[in-house]
Amino acid sequence: MTSARVGFVSLGCPKALVDSERIITQLRAEGYEIAPDYEGADLVVVNTCGFIDDAVQESLDAIGEALQENGKVIVTGCLGAKASGSGNNLIKELHPSVLAVTGPHATAEVMQAVHHHLPRPHDPFTDLVPEQGIRLTPRHYAYLKISEGCNHRCSFCIIPSMRGDLVSRPIGEVMREAESLVKSGVRELLVISQDTSAYGVDLQYRTDFVAGRPVRTRMTELCKELGQLGVWVRLHYVYPYPHVDDVIPLMAEGKILPYLDVPFQHAHPAVLKRMKRPASGERNLERIQSWRSIAPEITIRSTFIVGFPGETEAEFESLLEFLGQAELDRVGCFAYSPVAGATANDLPNPVPEAVRLERQERLMQTQAAISQRRLRRWVGKRVRVLVDDIDQSQGILIGRTMADAPEIDGIVRIAPDPNSRHPVPARIGDWATVDIVDSDDHDCDAIFIRETSV
Ligand code: SF4
Description:
Shape: globular
Distance between the termini: 45 Å
Bound molecules: iron/sulfur cluster
Low-confidence stretches: 123-129
Mean pLDDT: 89
């Protein structure tokens, strides 16, 4: 019997990617095949994103294309939870021929729809999956999703209305997944959620069991446990609450990577208040300084929104001043763009688009010099990198130091040692020791020294 084949289109952020991995894992566990193209598929699942208007359009286009090319389409993800102007489901209104629509993190509902429209293959044991499931990232790094949803209500964001309040996964379950990923060859775990510092709040930090030991479901304990796995552990989406200070010593001890992705979004208290940002009252500059005094190597990445409704020139300038003092390593900046359904749209004094774009440009210019300076501190150092790719045409490896998250930060271009006649022996996913010899705005250049086993 030929098995049933499902096509899969995965759009959106790393959290959506994890949803896709779960659905694909379940499909494979039940004996479905994943088709590489529309023609070869009996049905197509489209995992959508609904965060900003561009992402909505991309998702709607993908659904339209899947309908045209294949005809049998199930839609899941953030956009699936979105209502149209008339209060109906947006997707069903725009694409009435889709077979089913679900919101995000809805593996069970998606599977139910798949079972209904493409009955499950007769023998599920012909296609068993590896223990760690199917991942869409390369074999050597993986996203570890520790919770879903968010208890905050930032005025520019509609994620809570789509994904609901915070639901943390018990620490035992997260650690089982982490251990199984490491066993399968993963060398870097990227911890993700909407708000990593809030991990466990909804469970009142309930005690769960990790390898038979009682451990509380809380960020500090999670970092301690992950720090024992012997792989790189990188924290994303951490808000600057006081208890974050507790994980900095683990970074100083080399247990987890000295890296924090902290989406500050702004620095002026009045703007943060209008944004309804978590931890908006914290003294962020002092906090950053104290983190650096404990873990001097720490890399801090952040994102900012400029031109938020009501942002005055003085408020914007105070943000530039903050950047000058905070000396962050990596910064992303968005010019504010209204998201349908966000409460910020009702705020007075919207900033004209030309001013928003001009402020974005000014911020990026200010930050470019800072990032460049921060990156130069790596030049002259001998460091360990993780090899992500091999550029055959140039004869170099592409790697990352502990300061760079995949996809969003910089890379290290690694050339062979000019004094050695041996080709660089490393493969994708290997550790390597390199000497950093130069840096530009985002990336570093290095000379390969040796392969490193751990
Ligand atoms: S913290 Fe704010 S921006 Fe982040 S998901 Fe929650 S509401 Fe949205």
